[in-house]
């Protein structure tokens, strides 16, 4: 399932990131545990928490990130 469609405040594990290294350089990697903290209106970015960090990710990029659920 893509991150953009995943339920808010539920932890998930990143399975695949889009090509390019920007997200990787910001600390998001395959196997990272993340959760969506908020969704901005009108197709705006998603605020994702991973560890103690939060990052706003454009919705179109979030649609390219594949995740799977995890048992917290």
Written overview of the protein:
The protein is 11% helix and 36% strand. It has 72 residues and is mainly beta. The chain has a single domain (3-69), classed as Ferrous iron transport protein A (FeoA) (SH3 type barrels, Roll). It has a five-stranded antiparallel β-sheet with strand order 4-3-2-1-5. The model has no long low-confidence stretch (mean pLDDT 92).
Order of helices and strands: EHEEEHE
* Name given to the CATH architecture: Roll
The residue ranges in which pLDDT falls below 50 over 5 or more consecutive positions are none
Rounded radius of gyration (Å): 11 Å
Classified by CATH, the class is Mainly Beta
The CATH H-level homologous superfamily: Ferrous iron transport protein A (FeoA)
General shape: globular
First-to-last CA distance: 17 Å
Spatial order of strands in the largest sheet = 4-3-2-1-5
Tell me the domain tally.
Answer: 1
Q: Count up the helices.
A: 2
**Considering DSSP H and I runs of 4 or more, what fraction of the residues is helical?**
10-25%
Structural class: mainly beta
β-strand percent reads 35-45%
Number of strands: 5
CATH topology: SH3 type barrels
* Average pLDDT over all residues: 92
């Amino acid at each position: 399932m893509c991150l953009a469609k995943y339920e808010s405040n539920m932890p998930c594990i990143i399975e695949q990131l889009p090509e390019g290294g920007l997200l990787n350089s910001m600390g998001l990697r395959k196997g990272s545990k993340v959760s969506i903290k908020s969704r901005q209106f009108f197709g705006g970015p998603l605020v994702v928490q991973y560890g103690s960090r939060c990052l706003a990710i454009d919705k179109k990029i979030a649609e390219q990130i594949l995740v799977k659920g995890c048992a917290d």
